[in-house]
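SAMPLE LOG
Freezer: B-3
Tube label: C17
Construct: single chain, 555 aa
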Amino acid sequence: MIKDILFQIKHVISELTLNGKKGIEKRLASSFGHLKEDAFDFDLIGKYFRNKDNSKAHQVLSDKTCNDLDFEDLYTFLDRTHSKIGQQYLYNKLRTIVRNQEQTKLDETIIDVLSRDSSFRISVQKKIEKLNHKDANHVISLFQDPHVKPPKWFFVMKLLSFTSFISLILSVINPMFFIILLGVFCVNCVIHFWNKNNLFQYVSSIPQLINLNNVAIFLYSLPLFKDLNPKLPTSIKLINQVKSRMSLFQLEAKLQGDFQIIFWFLFEIFKTLFLIEPLFLFGVLRRLDSKRDEIEDIFKFVGHIDMLISIASLRAGIDAYCKPTVISGNRIIAHKMRHPLIYDCTPNSITMTDKSMLLTGSNMSGKTSFIRTIGLNVITGLTINTCFAESVSFPLLRVFSAIRISDDLLNDKSYYFEEVLTIKEMLVEGQNNEKNLFLLDELFKGTNTVERISAGKAVLSSLSKNNNMVLVSTHDIELADLLLDTYELYHFSEIIDENKIDFDYKLKEGKLQNRNAIRILEINDYPKEIIDEALEISKALDEVYIVSSMDKGIK
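STRUCTURE (predicted):
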């Protein structure tokens, strides 16, 4: 009868475990191709990037460019990873342009398998999800941050631990040694709890390093991933050498979570008596300090695989995408390109060859969104080999922008001065014999019309030299006339029908011919005397401009 009961209990547990596994697999299968619903802590997500030496990258995207292109919104849309490790790795990948054709080819092979074989992909995801606890964010501190150093009197800890051990043994023979043991225990209590501040810095990271190493062992056992890092077993082996000592931190973390009070209390007494925590902590840190490269190798291996799953999921969840063709020539050709963050975005095609591009059009017509569309697609194309278009080709570019500029009140800098500094950086970068993509919106709009047009023409002519490519928007029709030799002119327009304004968001060749700003004032019920005066002044200014243009031989 007892055997029957035990069998039934075992059967129930087995069923619950099986149902739990099926539930996880069903969740992972249904989430593939869909946006995540998680909250995003960019302080933690971006920490690996901020502390990493990316000096060998072709380009590291600046905070300014990321802000201009709504990078955090882009990341939120692109991220389909299943671990904190993958999140941090993906963030760094998107911020650093590093083009490696062999790596890209290997990545595409893996992505193809992950996309087609759902059972295999889910088995990988289940393992990687073990690193989705918030504590996994702190693994990077083990190879990026300086470790806590042992105090100069560390040898005293060893002496006290040895004294406790000897006193405990001798107290069985002579009870007087028990008094010595109590005295040493009191001293050890002070040291034990002093060390808690040091220990708490690693209670999150070291247990997650053990998990990371275990996940890496499983992933490397799969033939598909071995070519990502053929030398990984060496790193895994070195971390395994410290695993037994690190297990203490894993137990500490578990006790903090479950708080098994009785066992915790007895264990604390044992650790205090022999100063286990400080001796193990500084011993482990000394060993890990010499294995920083190995820890990062394992971090990058797991993070890279999680990123590839994320890319596969992204591609499965969007209507159209393509792999870019990275060319040697200096041109951008895109067919039906979309902005990834705009729902039901109107696609546009573009061909930039010998000249840069100048956009005219009214507010809200789509100029700035189009400029961002080009910038975002170049970035995603060069980082995760994915563009939101039917076809795209461009060279290996560096991306710089001046789109979203504001006053810096803390440093007493006006809008115009901030813009001057930003454009100056572009001019410097434009002389570095690299192929650059400069994205600008409403150049020098913080100053008067005459100087804005004059300075804008000079700056844009300079930026377009040295194989640089420029996309710039403007309201200044005069500027378009001055740049005909070096810029192709395109525009966005709207349709005003009685009291309604419609935008088609379609890119059109040539400069904008009609102006509707005053008409929009009229639609919004501005007083008639204001509308009449504005039209009269506008007509007079147009006549002056035409005469002036004819005198200068522009028209």
